[in-house]
């Protein structure tokens, strides 16, 4: 059936958009930038905050409402109640802490899962003369690899071929299994910037060429600077994405090059595992990684890696 030239699939997708913003009541119903932080000098105490604007003051949610939890994962598990509180806090303009008084942490720590998609940019496949995948290529990193947006990347003694990979990441906002593609975005709490740091020798030559070990050394998953809700982005599938090493651009593309869109990835992975609030997804990297340069280029101590995505922000990590 068609109604005013709109197909049934389009109607279902429109319904999913409205559901995401109203009936289902996920993070996508309000435009916000959520962060995890600690006060300088109080590194053991994690807090959740809402940025007034990118790079500006942060409203301390627990100061605004003492019933709020201290970690993003617990906050997301609260569902709409947590989001409503964050929205009220942002509107109040109260309990603002200066950026100079806090240290931003990864917007999510201790997730149940870190799910990654390989070979998911058309231009990255062309870079390798590799065929376009017919279905998503899924691998993982251990959650212990996660580090903050401005924390150091530690070069492991075990690897001589550590490489960069700027990636769009998203975080699951509510529990789901066998999720329909047209409803998938209503399960996404928001988006952030990731660097899928990779030890190419362990990814491509060692460990039976299984990718896990090469991807999951400590500090190999910088995330941040904020969890930006879906409503705050014009079009997540049309964002400039870049990586700079020591100020020189090495990756420069757009999320319109993604082969499998966010909805497809959520629906695909949820066929195999139950998705839970706080689960982190890395969606793949564009061309320009060091291993495919001629000659190959790898990170060394003292290098500064900056990963940027339009409308979300940038993370900046020094290699030590």
Whole-number mean pLDDT: 91
**Alpha-beta classification:** alpha+beta
Question: Whole-Å distance between the termini?
Answer: 60 Å
CATH topology of the largest domain: Fumarylacetoacetate hydrolase, domain 2
Whole-number tally of structural domains: 2
Q: Please tally the helical runs, counting DSSP H or I stretches of 4 or more residues.
A: 8
Report Rg.
19 Å
CATH class of the largest domain: Alpha Beta
What's the name of the CATH homologous superfamily of the largest domain?
Answer: Fumarylacetoacetase-like, C-terminal domain
- Percent in strands: 25-35%
Helix content: 10-25%
pLDDT < 50 runs, ≥5 residues: 1-28
Question: Topology, please?
Answer:
Blueprint: H1 8-23, E1 33-39, E2 47-51, E3 58-60, H2 61-64, H3 72-77, H4 80-92, E4 96-97, E5 102-104, E6 114-118, H5 122-127, E7 137-140, E8 146-147, E9 162-163, E10 166-172, E11 188-195, E12 198-199, H6 200-204, H7 212-215, E13 221-228, E14 240-245, E15 248-254, H8 262-269, E16 280-282, E17 304-309, E18 313-318
Parallel strand pairs: 6-16, 8-13
Antiparallel strand pairs: 1-2, 1-5, 1-13, 2-3, 3-4, 6-7, 9-12, 10-11, 10-16, 11-13, 14-15, 14-17, 17-18
Organism: Anabarilius grahami (Kanglang fish)
InterPro entries: FAH, Fumarylacetoacetase-like_C, Fumarylacetoacetase_C_sf
Family: Belongs to the FAH family.
């Amino acid at each position: 059936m068609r109604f005013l030239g709109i197909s049934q699939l389009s109607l279902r997708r429109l319904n999913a958009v409205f559901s995401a913003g109203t009936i289902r009541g996920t993070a996508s119903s309000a435009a916000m930038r959520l962060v995890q932080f600690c006060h300088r000098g109080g590194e053991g105490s994690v807090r959740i905050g809402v940025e007034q604007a990118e790079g500006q003051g942060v409203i301390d949610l627990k100061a605004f409402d003492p019933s709020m939890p201290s970690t993003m994962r617990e906050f997301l598990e609260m569902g709409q109640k947590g989001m409503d509180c964050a929205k009220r806090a942002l509107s109040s303009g109260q309990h603002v802490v200066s950026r100079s008084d806090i240290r931003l942490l990864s917007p999510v720590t201790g997730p149940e899962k870190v799910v990654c998609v390989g070979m998911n940019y058309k231009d990255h496949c062309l870079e390798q003369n590799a065929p376009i995948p017919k279905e998503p290529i899924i691998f993982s990193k251990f959650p212990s690899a996660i580090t903050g947006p401005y924390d150091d990347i530690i070069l492991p003694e075990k690897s001589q071929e550590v490489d960069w990979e700027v990636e769009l990441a998203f975080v699951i906002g509510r529990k789901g299994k066998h999720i329909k593609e047209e409803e998938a975005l209503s399960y996404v709490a928001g988006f952030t910037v990731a660097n899928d740091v990779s030890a190419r020798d362990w990814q491509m030559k060692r460990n039976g060429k299984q990718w896990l070990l090469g991807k999951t050394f400590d500090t190999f998953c910088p995330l941040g600077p904020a969890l930006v809700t879906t409503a705050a982005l014009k079009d997540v599938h049309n964002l400039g994405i870049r990586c700079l090493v020591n100020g020189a651009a090495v990756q420069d593309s757009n999320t319109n090059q993604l082969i499998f869109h966010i909805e497809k990835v959520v629906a695909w992975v949820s066929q195999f595992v139950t998705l839970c609030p706080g689960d982190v997804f890395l969606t793949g990297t564009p061309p320009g990684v060091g291993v495919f340069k001629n000659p190959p280029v790898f990170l060394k101590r003292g290098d500064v890696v900056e990963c940027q995505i339009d409308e979300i922000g940038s993370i900046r990590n020094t290699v030590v």
